[in-house]
């Protein structure tokens, strides 16, 4: 119980700490950060349920007013802004990523975790983010999707990194990779 | 850890957090339900007036947070303007700014401990369903503890890398960073267990 709780809190903090790495700001002011790497790792390392709980804990603390999002953003305003969909999507992205890693057992972990990160951390997260953008800006989904295509290459690199880190952790600390425990 | 509560005291700092959150919910639902320009203009002006009641320093901090939305406001106004729906664009942009400002006002006038008290009160009935709310409170405290510790570990690894190489550290420190973090969490779990753990 205590182990699972501290690991969940650790990964919630990891999402926050990765947001502190200096960011690049691309077009339209959406910052490119390592934060979504943290969400992918929640799923690949902790598995579906605990990964989602870690991401949910992070999102909850942002809502309560801690400036944990990249660029020191936080508070309830985040959920009233057009990019709210991405933040709301964090727990779902971690859940799907974790679900894939838990169930796809025959295959090298780096590959499995990488593919899971692409599906969960990119496809699922973008689905939430794009829906949020389209709703807030009152534009069709296809037009909203165009706005985020610029972030795709960066996120693919993060998914590859998430796969490599998960495989390395499974070698160094096999007991702590709960998705395969 | 620094939270986003405004250090400038306003009258609203003393209001119950639950009331402010409920009012915010109602206001946001109404904002999104109405699509006429006159209503949105009135709502924006009222919210601005409420912000200014907090004093100049408070209002400046609240309004400067709105600056983050400029790409979206420009986008909405241009996009709708070009497709011949300038009026709709104005409504959406105004609603965006008002909703954000209102939500931000609640965050700025409510301390983290007040917010956590509301969460614990709302979560209290869940204990009957077997949810451990003590673990939830402990989890929140642990995140606040872990975040600066992780940042320090990252800085230490970067410094160590810089002492050895003239190249930038980049992704090479990510794996040792993850291992250090996991070890810290396992030690923390042992320490918690030794002190009674999460059982109430």
Automatic annotation (TrEMBL), chain A:
GO CC, sorted alphabetically, is: plasma membrane
Arranged from A to Z, the UniProt key words for this protein are:
Cell membrane, Membrane, Transmembrane, Transmembrane helix, Transport
Membrane topology of this protein: Multi-pass membrane protein
Q: Per the UniProt record, which residue ranges are transmembrane? A: 51-69, 76-101, 107-137, 144-170
Pfam families cross-referenced by the UniProt entry: BioY
Superkingdom of this protein's organism: Bacteria
Its localization reads: Cell membrane
What GO MF terms are annotated? biotin transmembrane transporter activity
The entry assigns this protein to a family as follows: Belongs to the BioY family.
Protein name in UniProt: Biotin transporter
Automatic annotation (TrEMBL), chain B:
Q: Primary place of residence?
A: membrane
Q: Does the keyword DNA damage apply?
A: no
Q: State the family named in the UniProt similarity comment for this chain.
A: Belongs to the CbiQ family.
Q: Which domain of life is it from?
A: Bacteria
Full protein name: Biotin transport system permease protein
Query: Do the record's keywords include Chloroplast?
Result: no
Its membrane topology is listed as:
Multi-pass membrane protein
The residue ranges crossing the membrane are: 12-32, 38-58, 70-94, 100-124
CDD domains the UniProt entry points to: EcfT (cd16914)
Q: Which UniProt keywords apply?
A: Membrane, Transmembrane, Transmembrane helix
Q: Where in the cell is it found?
A: Membrane
């Amino acid at each position: 119980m205590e182990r699972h709780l501290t690991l969940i809190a650790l990964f919630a903090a990891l999402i926050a700490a990765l947001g502190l790495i200096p960011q690049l700001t691309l077009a339209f002011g959406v910052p490119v950060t390592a934060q979504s790497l943290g969400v992918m790792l929640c799923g690949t390392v902790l598995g579906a349920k605990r990964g989602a709980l870690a991401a949910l804990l992070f999102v909850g603390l942002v809502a309560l007013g801690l400036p944990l999002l990249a660029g020191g953003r936080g508070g309830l305003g985040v959920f009233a802004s057009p990019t709210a969909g991405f933040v709301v999507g964090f727990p779902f992205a971690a859940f799907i990523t974790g679900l894939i890693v838990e169930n796809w057992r025959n295959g090298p972990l780096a590959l499995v975790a990488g593919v899971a990160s692409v599906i969960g951390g990119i496809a699922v997260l973008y689905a939430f983010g794009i829906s949020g953008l389209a709703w807030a800006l009152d534009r069709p989904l296809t037009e909203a999707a165009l706005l985020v295509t610029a972030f795709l290459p960066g996120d693919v690199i993060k998914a590859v990194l998430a796969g490599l880190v998960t495989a390395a952790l499974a070698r160094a600390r096999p007991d702590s990779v709960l998705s395969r425990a | 850890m620094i939270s986003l509560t405004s250090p400038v005291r306003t009258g609203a700092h003393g209001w119950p957090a639950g009331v402010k959150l409920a009012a915010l919910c109602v206001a946001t639902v109404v904002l999104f339900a109405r699509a006429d320009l006159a209503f949105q203009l009135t709502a924006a002006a009222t919210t601005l007036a409420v912000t200014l009641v907090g004093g100049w320093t408070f209002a400046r901090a609240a309004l400067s947070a709105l600056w983050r939305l400029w790409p979206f406001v420009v986008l909405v106004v241009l996009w709708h303007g070009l497709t011949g729906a300038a009026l709709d664009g104005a409504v959406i942009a105004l609603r965006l700014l008002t909703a954000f400002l209102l939500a931000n006002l609640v965050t700025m006038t409510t301390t983290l401990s007040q917010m956590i008290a509301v969460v614990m009160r709302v979560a209290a009935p869940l204990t009957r369903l077997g949810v451990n709310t003590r673990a939830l409170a402990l989890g929140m405290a642990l995140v606040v503890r872990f975040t600066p510790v992780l940042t320090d570990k990252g800085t230490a690894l970067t410094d160590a890398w810089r002492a050895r190489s003239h190249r930038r550290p980049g992704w090479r420190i990510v794996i040792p960073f993850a291992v250090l973090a996991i070890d810290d969490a396992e030690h923390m779990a042992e320490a918690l267990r030794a002190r009674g753990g999460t059982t109430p």
